[in-house]
C-alpha cells in the first residue's frame, strides 16, 4: 500500500531544499497542489481559485481556474517531483485566468535523487482580458544528472493581459533540459519570459521561447541567462514575431562558458511582419566579463571568488 | 608609500608610457593632469597591475616592496585599489553586497550605509538597489567611490572620479577624496580638469606618456593652461618642454 505520509514528507523536504516554504501545504488559506510521481499528496482550493487534480498512470492532470476579477494576495503554490532514483512523471495542466484577475504561482520541481527520471510537462495557459499572471518555477536537482526535463507550454494572453514567466534551474545537475514555450499575444498584451539555467557536468540545455506579437501595441521580452561549465552544452533560441502593428519585442541572451569543454549557442530570431513593428536583440556568449572580474579583484577577491560572484549574481 | 621608477609600457611596439617617475607619500593626493589620450588611464592600469598592462621596463615600489611583477589580486591584498572611469555593472548584485565585499576583503570599518552617506547617496534608497544598468552613470560612479571607502585602501587610484558627476555633487565627491587622504590613504587622482587637480597636495602634468612637470597643483594647473589646454599639437609636446622635464 502506498504510504502517502512518508511520500508527502519526502516531497516536502525536497520542496524546502529548493527554497519553498512547506507550511503552505497545511495552510488552508493558500491554494496549493503537490504531486509526487503520479500521486496527488495535497490539493487545496480557496475562494476564487479552484484546483482540480486527477491522478493518471504516469503522473497527473491539473486544472487551475482563477475567477474573473479575483486578486490573490498570496501566491498559489505548486510542487512537482520524483523522489526515487528512477521514475516518470507526466503532468498535463491547464490554467484559466479570468478577465481582470491577478495571480502569481510559485512552482517548485524537485528531483533530488534522480538517476533515470523523466519529467514531462504539458501546460496550456489562458490569460483573460486585462488579467495578470506570474509563474515562477524553480528546479532542484541532485548531483546525479539523471533527469530528462521536457516542459511544453502554450500561452494565450488576451487584450491588455500580462504573462510573466520566470524559469530557474541553477541547483544541481539536471541531465537534459528541453524547454519549449510559445506565447500568443492579443492587443496591448505583455509577455516577459526569463530563464536562468546553470548547466554542469554533461548537462544538455535547450531553451526555445517564442512570442507572437499578434495584437496591435503588444510587447514581449525574451531574456535568458545561462552558464555552462565542465562538459555542459546549451542552445538558446529566442524568437519574436511582430505580426501586429506597433508591436515591440526584445531578445536578450547572455551565455557564459566556463572551461574549454563547455559549449554554448544562441540563436535569436526576429521576424517583422507588420512594417510598424520594432524588434531588437542582443546576445553575448563567452567567458565572464573581464572588467567585472578585475573590478572585484581590485577589491581583494581572488579570480575564482570574483567569477563566482559574477555568476551567482547573474543566475539569481 | 609609492615610488614609480622610470616605467615604460609598449603596446604592439608602440610606446605608451615613456619613462614615468613619481613619488607619492602616505596620505598624499597626487593629481595626474592631462588631456585625452595622454596615457592617464594606462598609468592607472599599470599601477593596479591589470592583465595586459605589465611594464615593459622600470619598477614600482610600494612601501618597501617591489610590486612590479605582482598580479592584480596580490596588489589589492596589499591595499591598492582602482576606481574605474567607467565602472563595471553587475546583474543581481546589490549595492549592500558590493560594498560588503570591499569592506570584508579590504578590512575597512565603515558599514555600507555609512559609505553611501559619505558619497551623498541615501542608504534607504540605494542599499537594496542592484549595481546594474538601472543606475545612472553618476550614481554608479558614486557607488564606486563608496566601495573604495569601504575597502579603506592604502593607495586609491581614482580614474576621473569627477566625470559624470553633476555640478551639485562634485564638491561632495571632492570632500570624500580629501577625507580618504586625511584618514591615511594615498590617492592618485586622474583628471583632465584643472579645478579638480587643485584639491591635490601635488600634481603632475602628463603628455604623450611622459610627465612634463611635477609641482604644486597651482603651478601644474598653470602649466596645463598655458601648454596643454589649447595645445595645437595634442600629445606631441614641444621639444623644449620635454627637455625641461
Structure description:
- The complex is a heterodimer of chains A (316) and B (245).
- Chain A has three helices and 19 strands.
- Chain A is mainly β and 316 residues long.
- In chain A, strands 2-1-5-7-9-11-13-15-17-19 form a ten-stranded mixed β-sheet, with helices on one face. A nine-stranded mixed β-sheet of chain A has the order 3-4-6-8-10-12-14-16-18, with no helix packed on it.
- The longest helix of chain A is centred in the N-terminal third of the chain and has 14 residues.
- The radius of gyration of chain A is 20 Å and the shape is globular.
- The model of chain A has no long low-confidence stretch (mean pLDDT 95).
- Chain B has 245 residues and is an alpha/beta fold.
- In chain B, the strands form two sheets. Chain B has a six-stranded mixed β-sheet, with helices on both faces. Chain B has a four-stranded antiparallel β-sheet with strand order 2-1-4-5, with helices on one face.
- In chain B, helix 3 runs parallel beside helix 6 and helix 4 packs across helix 6.
- Chains A and B meet through helix 2 and helix 3 of A and helix 2, strand 6 and helix 3 of B.
Strand order of the largest sheet of chain B: 6-7-8-3-9-10
Number of helices of chain A: 3
Order of helices and strands of chain B: EEEHEEHEHHHHEHEHEEHH
**Which structural class do you get from the secondary structure elements of chain A?**
mainly beta
Oligomeric nature of the chains = heterodimer
Descriptive terms for the model:
heterodimer, A: 316 residues, mainly beta, 9-stranded mixed β-sheet, 3 helices, 11% helix, globular, B: 245 residues, alpha/beta, 6-stranded mixed β-sheet, 4-stranded antiparallel β-sheet, 10 helices, 10 strands, 37% helix
Amino acid at each position: 500500500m502506498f504510504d502517502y505520509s512518508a511520500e508527502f514528507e519526502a516531497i516536502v523536504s525536497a520542496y524546502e531544499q529548493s527554497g519553498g516554504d512547506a507550511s503552505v501545504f497545511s495552510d488552508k488559506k493558500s491554494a496549493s497542489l503537490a504531486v509526487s510521481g503520479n500521486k496527488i499528496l495535497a490539493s487545496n482550493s480557496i475562494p476564487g481559485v479552484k484546483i482540480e487534480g486527477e491522478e493518471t498512470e504516469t503522473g497527473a492532470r491539473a486544472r487551475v481556474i482563477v475567477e474573473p476579477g479575483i486578486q490573490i494576495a498570496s501566491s498559489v503554490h505548486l510542487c512537482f517531483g520524483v523522489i526515487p532514483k528512477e521514475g516518470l512523471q507526466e503532468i498535463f495542466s491547464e490554467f484559466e485566468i479570468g478577465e481582470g484577475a491577478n495571480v502569481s504561482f510559485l512552482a517548485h520541481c524537485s528531483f533530488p535523487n534522480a538517476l533515470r527520471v523523466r519529467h514531462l510537462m504539458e501546460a496550456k495557459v489562458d490569460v483573460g482580458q486585462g488579467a495578470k499572471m506570474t509563474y515562477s518555477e524553480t528546479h532542484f536537482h541532485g548531483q546525479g544528472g539523471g533527469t530528462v526535463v521536457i516542459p511544453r507550454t502554450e500561452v494565450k494572453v488576451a487584450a491588455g493581459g500580462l504573462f510573466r514567466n520566470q524559469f530557474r534551474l541553477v541547483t544541481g545537475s539536471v541531465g537534459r533540459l528541453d524547454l519549449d514555450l510559445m506565447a500568443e499575444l492579443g492587443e496591448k498584451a505583455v509577455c516577459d519570459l526569463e530563464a536562468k539555467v546553470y548547466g554542469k557536468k554533461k548537462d544538455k540545455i535547450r531553451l526555445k521561447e517564442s512570442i507572437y506579437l499578434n495584437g496591435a501595441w503588444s510587447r514581449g521580452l525574451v531574456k535568458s541567462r545561462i552558464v555552462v561549465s565542465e562538459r555542459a552544452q546549451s542552445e538558446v533560441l529566442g524568437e519574436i514575431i511582430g505580426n501586429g502593428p506597433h508591436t515591440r519585442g526584445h531578445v536578450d541572451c547572455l551565455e557564459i562558458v566556463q572551461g574549454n569543454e563547455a559549449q554554448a549557442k544562441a540563436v535569436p530570431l526576429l521576424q517583422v511582419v507588420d512594417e510598424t513593428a520594432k524588434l531588437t536583440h542582443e546576445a553575448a556568449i563567452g567567458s565572464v566579463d573581464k572588467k567585472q572580474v578585475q573590478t572585484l579583484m581590485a577589491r581583494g577577491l581572488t579570480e575564482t571568488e570574483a567569477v563566482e560572484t559574477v555568476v551567482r549574481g547573474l543566475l539569481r | 608609500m609609492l615610488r614609480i621608477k622610470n616605467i615604460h609600457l609598449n603596446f604592439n611596439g608602440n610606446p605608451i608610457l615613456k619613462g614615468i617617475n613619481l613619488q607619492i607619500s602616505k596620505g598624499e593626493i597626487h593629481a595626474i593632469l592631462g588631456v585625452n589620450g595622454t596615457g592617464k588611464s594606462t598609468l592607472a592600469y599599470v599601477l593596479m597591475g591589470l592583465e595586459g598592462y605589465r611594464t615593459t621596463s622600470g619598477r614600482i615600489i610600494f612601501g618597501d616592496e617591489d610590486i612590479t611583477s605582482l598580479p592584480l589580486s596580490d596588489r589589492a591584498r596589499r591595499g591598492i585599489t582602482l576606481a574605474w572611469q567607467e565602472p563595471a555593472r553587475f546583474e543581481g548584485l546589490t549595492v549592500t553586497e558590493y560594498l560588503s565585499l570591499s569592506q570584508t576583503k579590504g578590512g575597512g570599518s565603515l558599514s555600507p550605509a555609512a559609505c553611501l552617506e559619505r558619497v551623498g547617496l541615501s542608504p534607504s534608497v540605494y542599499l537594496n538597489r542592484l549595481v546594474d544598468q538601472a543606475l545612472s552613470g553618476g550614481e554608479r560612479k558614486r557607488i564606486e567611490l563608496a566601495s573604495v571607502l569601504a575597502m579603506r585602501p592604502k593607495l586609491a587610484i581614482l580614474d576621473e572620479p569627477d566625470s559624470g558627476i553633476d555640478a551639485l555633487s562634485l564638491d561632495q565627491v571632492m570632500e570624500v577624496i580629501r577625507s580618504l587622504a586625511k584618514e591615511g590613504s594615498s590617492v592618485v587622482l586622474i583628471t583632465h580638469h584643472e579645478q579638480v587637480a587643485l584639491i591635490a597636495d601635488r600634481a603632475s602634468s602628463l603628455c604623450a606618456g611622459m610627465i612634463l612637470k611635477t609641482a604644486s597643483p597651482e603651478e601644474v594647473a598653470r602649466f596645463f593652461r598655458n601648454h596643454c589646454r589649447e595645445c595645437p599639437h595634442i600629445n606631441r609636446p614641444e621639444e623644449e618642454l620635454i627637455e625641461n622635464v
